[in-house]
Amino acid sequence: MSVLIFAELDEGKLKGSSKEAIYYGSKVAESLGTAATAIVIGQADDAELATAGRFGAAKVLHAADSKLTEANGMAYASVVAAAAEQEGSTVVVVAKSSLGDAMAARLAGKLRAGLAANVVDLPNLSNGFRVKRSIYTGKAFAETELTADKKILAIKKNTITPEEKEATASVEAFSPALNDSDFVLKVTNTEKATGDVLLPEADLVVSAGRGLKGPENWGIVEDLAKALGAATACSKPVSDLDWRPHHEHVGQTGIKISPNLYIAAGISGAIQHLAGVNSSKVIVVINKDPEAPFFKSADYGIVGDVFDILPRLTKAVNAL
Amino acid sequence: MKILVCVTSVPDTTTKITFTDNNTRFNKTGVQFITGPYDDYALARAVELKEKPGVTVTVLNVGTADSEPVIRKCLAIGADDAIRVDAEPTDAFFVAEQIAAIAKENNYDLILMGRESIDYNGGQVHGIVGELLGMPSISPVMQLDIDGSTAKLTREIEGGKQALEAQLPLILGCQEPIAEWKIPNMRGIMTARTKPLKVIPPAGNDTLTKVVGYELPPPRGSVKMIPAEEAETLIQLLRTEAKVI
Ligand SMILES: Cc1cc2nc3c(=O)[nH]c(=O)nc-3n(C[C@H](O)[C@H](O)[C@H](O)COP(=O)(O)OP(=O)(O)OC[C@H]3O[C@@H](n4cnc5c(N)ncnc54)[C@H](O)[C@@H]3O)c2cc1C
Ligand SMILES: Nc1ncnc2c1ncn2[C@@H]1O[C@H](COP(=O)(O)O)[C@@H](O)[C@H]1O
């Protein structure tokens, strides 16, 4: 009855958030007196998959059917359900992500499993099975008891810091029967930025708002992000105005992130913006208005002009 | 074509969240309730699709009588009728079972939801309903056109977007820019008063999770201001003090 972790791939590599999920799952397994198994779907080589052992997985089930190459929440849920059945797993761990969310919801329906999303801590097993999850878009936490036999935990980024060890996981091919009904969506086109740090995965994020005045000025944001190895993000008006693509928009109606560092340049700090970034570990705010509300939620602040400050910060990073 | 739009009644996005009864209940005092912003996108697109003849839009909420102002507003924006399942929406599976039970009776061609509710942010209900009905679910959807029985849509993926085609019936979790939020006009508000709002009891009471208590995050420490002339020292502080770079 191992703890099962749904681990995602990005271009053949285990995603950072999934490594965290594997480590988290191995800790849950430890406290339940069992082992952690990862289920990985899609194309990847065995050497890469075996590295799941570094994060605590004893075994990796690899579903590599070519029909599964395209990410598909419905089909993946069927595969994970089959893996849970084979392994006798009653606890499934996933990292919050667009694919993870879609998969987890379908899986919850299939297994009649209690699903806790945005989990931010290891479960407390002293009184039932309880987890702490973030609610009201980061403004509060709910201590939640999972009362069903089967449980799914969708963890938020930065819930736990993996400690790597010298170990490799055994890799087993996994080929459950696939249902045609899971393959009814026809993908006609995919546009995906390649090479960039994915925003939901990023440890460091440089974000900018309407204070940048126009899309032609984004070079200074990208330069700092590049120097830091950070992802770029933006406020809602910036994506509404089409200055930046929608998938960079963070906040109440955008992506919710919890990186180690969030740098906000020329963003006022409206409550709906904060909702998407308030669980960042460290927040830096750069704004020319000393009264900007964002300073109240920041760890470091600079009152200044972004057109002056950002290039100087980039220089300072490059000089490190 | 029959469209069902599932809406939540949630605290306004500017609400300061607090709890009462020894942190076991959400404090509703002075809180303004609104339609979930993502649900608003779903409703707005549904009302646009109604411009074609033969399209009806039903709004569904699982909630107590406190939700009725939000439901009336959806009717004022242009939905034809509404159903309220009279129950506290405590658990995603419970809510999904209610929606699935109603959908089974009514054969909707399209079930539109928000990408996620803004109280519990689960992003789960569409997937669970999809599984209960054996219907595809797609989220987050940013663009939707209907051509006969085919839906052409765009969903957001990490770092980009993807165009898809699928046959109705479908369940979609919506987000911007699928449509512009709509505000009710005077005529809408007047007609909404007489549009049917059916209140029905819940089907079953299966819950798989239970909230046992709430907590507020610890306040962030005070901000350290760095004079603009010395902006570069920020980078040193991030390295040596905050240890994040
Ligand atoms: C239901 C709802 C949901 C929402 N969801 C989101 C969301 O998900 N994400 C989001 O971001 N917003 C969201 N909003 C909008 C939000 O309320 C704010 O309007 C928005 O965040 C403001 O964006 P901004 O800070 O970029 O622009 P502004 O508020 O215009 O702020 C620009 C800032 O830049 C500063 N500035 C200007 N020039 C310079 C300069 N040269 N140097 C330094 N600083 C400068 C100004 O002092 C100002 O503080 C939502 C609103 C609602 C009602
Ligand atoms: N109580 C409810 N009544 C009606 N629809 C709901 C309810 N809760 C959630 N939904 C729908 O499901 C979507 C996703 O919600 P959630 O899974 O809670 O994030 C919401 O945007 C709504 O469209």
TrEMBL record, chain A:
Q: Please, which domain of life does this record's source organism belong to? A: Bacteria
State any GO BP term from the record: fatty acid beta-oxidation using acyl-CoA dehydrogenase
What Pfam families does the database record attribute to this sequence? ETF, ETF_alpha
Instruction: Please name the SUPFAM superfamilies in this protein's record.
Output: Adenine nucleotide alpha hydrolases-like, DHS-like NAD/FAD-binding domain
In alphabetical order, the GO MF annotations are: electron transfer activity; flavin adenine dinucleotide binding
Q: Matching SMART domains, A to Z?
A: ETF
Electron transfer flavoprotein alpha/beta-subunit N-terminal domain mapped to chain residues = 3-187
Q: Per the entry, which co-factors are needed? A: FAD
Q: Does the keyword Endoplasmic reticulum apply?
A: no
The free-text note explaining how the cofactor binds reads:
Binds 1 FAD per dimer.
* Record-listed FAD binding positions: R210, G266, I267, S268, G269, A270, I271, Q272, H273, N287
Question: Which controlled-vocabulary keywords does the entry list?
Answer: Electron transport, FAD, Flavoprotein, Transport
UniProt family annotation: Belongs to the ETF alpha-subunit/FixB family.
Q: What is this protein called?
A: Electron transfer flavoprotein subunit alpha
Species of origin reads Arsenicibacter rosenii
TrEMBL record, chain B:
Entry-linked SMART domains: ETF
Q: Check the record and name the InterPro entries matching this protein.
A: ETF_a/b_N, ETF_b, ETF_beta_N, Rossmann-like_a/b/a_fold
> One MF term in GO for this entry?
electron transfer activity
Q: Name one Pfam family in it.
A: ETF
Q: Which residues form the Electron transfer flavoprotein alpha/beta-subunit N-terminal domain?
A: 23-207
Gene3D superfamilies assigned to the protein according to its UniProt record, in alphabetical order: HUPs (3.40.50.620)
| Keyword annotations from UniProtKB, A to Z | Electron transport, Transport
The record's listing under SUPFAM superfamilies reads: Adenine nucleotide alpha hydrolases-like
Similarity annotation: Belongs to the ETF beta-subunit/FixA family.
Can you name this protein? Electron transfer flavoprotein subunit beta
Source organism (scientific name): Arsenicibacter rosenii
The major lineage groups are: Bacteria, Pseudomonadati, Bacteroidota, Cytophagia, Cytophagales
